[in-house]
Automatic annotation (TrEMBL):
Residues 72-327 form the Orn/DAP/Arg decarboxylase 2 N-terminal domain. Residues 330-419 form the Orn/DAP/Arg decarboxylase 2 C-terminal domain. Gene3D superfamilies: Alanine racemase, Lyase, Ornithine Decarboxylase, Chain A, domain 1. Pyridoxal 5'-phosphate binds at residues 278, 320-323, 421. NCBIfam families: lysA. This is Diaminopimelate decarboxylase. Coiled coil: none annotated. It catalyses: meso-2,6-diaminopimelate + H(+) = L-lysine + CO2. Its cofactor is pyridoxal 5'-phosphate. The gene is lysA. Pfam families: Orn_Arg_deC_N, Orn_DAP_Arg_deC. Keywords: Amino-acid biosynthesis, Decarboxylase, Lyase, Lysine biosynthesis, Pyridoxal phosphate. It comes from Streptomyces musisoli. Homodimer.
Length: 463
């Protein structure tokens, strides 16, 4: 079976043997604070609530499936990152994890910057009032039109990803009579996933310019020569769903090595270093993510130490968490449609969504947990698999789950930690309508991305 290493990332898929699952939790009604948004709890009737609102009411008002996002939690996590890194560093939220105009406003209010990687994300950011100078534009194949629009809008930085792009951005900036701030994304020969990192000699991937073989140094040479560009720093993003900080340590060591070479060759000390995102979250109770202040402390110490030994001024650090901010803030609320017992095997629980609202299980073998949320139950645990309604046997939401044996059609179940890379990767497979995102805060719920309708589908299909 192929294991893909996508930037939005697998979860140590190779660690557990095929077919392995943990023992059932001691209490099926428990809500592990690690995987649930901050304001989630169970009320006296046994119904799970978020922001003080019972999920049964949310289902009635907004339908299922729905992504339910805890706004207070989102803001708290964004603020925790901002505070942890302080005024001498920048936190760029990676918009690809989940972006909407409400999210852009929250980020703006909480003092975070924003990463975008397409014209669509840029348009969303600008339309919600994110100041252009706080936007960074990423991507390995930005179109000339996208580059043009980004420079015209005045984005704070464009992260250059190839030799062609160095020329493209310089040329476009010059044609607009501007000098564009840029960073160069390099690959440092480190790939990090979850509990391990691999130091590779060659970087066999589409992103960035390899440090190996002097390519990154050559990219810097060219960028420094072009009038349309102001080179402000070096960028490195090493992976996703990372718990082990040692990959960042190696990456920072190599990036600082390049900064030193640049100083020695050109007499220039670049003022910024971007260490990317990729910090892990808890998808199940087995995961132990680090707190933002621990991450900030570790990264700042690594960069400071490396710069001291290279006799460089410590550059301004930026980081780009996506999943670590939005991932834990949302859960997906589903209604159980059918419950099919396969004797001696397991029980298949079919819900009203599936791979169209969460592709990560099929794509990365991602693990999730699931809980009955519309009532408490003291029934025995049953081994279940939560599947969707799509015409595809790989349409699995939660591969191995323990749910109460009295689970029945009409019950609501919820999968926590679906804030990142679920709505943003959602599809219309089988012409299933993409679910809404409902934001809950202080006893009030509102739709921030509405449910797709059949009219939406038919509007695109021009016949
Ligand atoms: C995907 C990505 C991120 C965010 O990754 P998370 O795992 O969501 O933190 C940050 N920076 C870059 C360049 C990325 O491609």
């Amino acid at each position: 079976m192929s294991r893909s290493a996508h930037p939005a990332g697998p979860r140590h898929a190779d660690v557990l043997p095929e077919g392995h699952y943990s023992a059932p939790p001691a209490d099926l009604n428990a809500l592990d604070a690690k995987v649930w948004a901050q304001t989630v709890g169970r009320n006296d009737d046994g119904v799970v609530t978020v922001g003080g609102i019972p999920v049964t009411r949310l289902a009635e008002e907004f339908g299922t499936p729905a992504y339910v996002l805890d706004e207070a939690d989102f803001r708290a996590r964004a603020r925790a990152w901002r505070t942890a890194f302080g005024p001498d560093a920048d936190v760029f939220y990676a918009g690809k994890a989940f972006l909407s105009r409400a999210v852009v406003r929250w980020l703006n209010e909480e003092g975070l910057n924003l990463d975008v990687c397409s014209g669509g994300e840029l348009a969303t950011a600008l339309s919600a009032g994110m100041p252009a100078e706080r936007i960074a534009f990423h991507g390995n194949n930005k179109s000339v039109a996208e580059i043009h629009r980004a420079i015209e809008a005045g984005v704070g930085r464009i992260v250059l990803d190839s030799f062609q792009e160095i020329v493209r951005v310089a040329h476009t900036a010059q044609s607009l009579g501007k000098r564009q701030k840029v960073q160069i994304r390099i690959t440092v020969g480190v790939e990090a996933h979850t509990h391990e990192f691999i130091a590779t000699a060659h970087e066999d991937q589409k992103f960035g310019i390899p440090l190996a073989g002097g390519q990154a140094a050559e990219a810097v040479r060219r960028a420094l020569q072009l009038d349309g560009l102001e080179l402000i720093g070096i960028h490195s993003h090493i992976g996703s769903q990372i718990f082990d900080m040692s990959g960042f340590e190696v990456a920072a060591h190599r990036v600082v090595g390049l900064l030193k070479d640049i100083r020695d060759e050109h007499g220039v000390e670049l003022p910024e270093i971007d260490l990317g995102g990729g910090l892990g979250i808890a998808y199940t109770s087995d995961d132990d993510p680090r707190e933002p202040h621990e991450i900030a402390k570790a990264l700042t110490e690594i960069v400071t130490r490396e710069c001291e030994s290279a006799r460089l001024r410590t550059p301004r650090i930026s980081v780009e968490p996506g999943r670590a901010i939005v991932g834990p803030t949302a859960f997906t609320l589903y209604e159980v449609g059918t419950v099919k017992q396969l004797d001696g095997l397991r029980t298949y629980v079919s819900v009203d969504g599936g791979m169209s609202d969460n592709i990560r299980t099929a794509l990365y073998d991602a693990e999730y947990s699931v809980v009955l949320v519309s009532r408490a139950s003291d029934a025995q645990p049953m081994l279940a698999r939560v599947v969707g309604k799509h015409c595809e046997s790989g349409d699995i939401v939660v591969k191995d789950a323990f749910l109460p044996a009295d689970l029945a059609p009409g019950d609501l179940i919820a999968v926590p930690a679906t804030g990142a890379y679920c709505r943003s990767m959602a599809s219309n497979y089988n012409h299933v309508l993409r679910p809404p995102v409902v934001a809950v805060r202080d006893g009030a719920a509102r739709v921030i991305v509405r449910r797709e309708t059949e009219e939406d589908l038919l509007r695109l299909d021009v016949g």
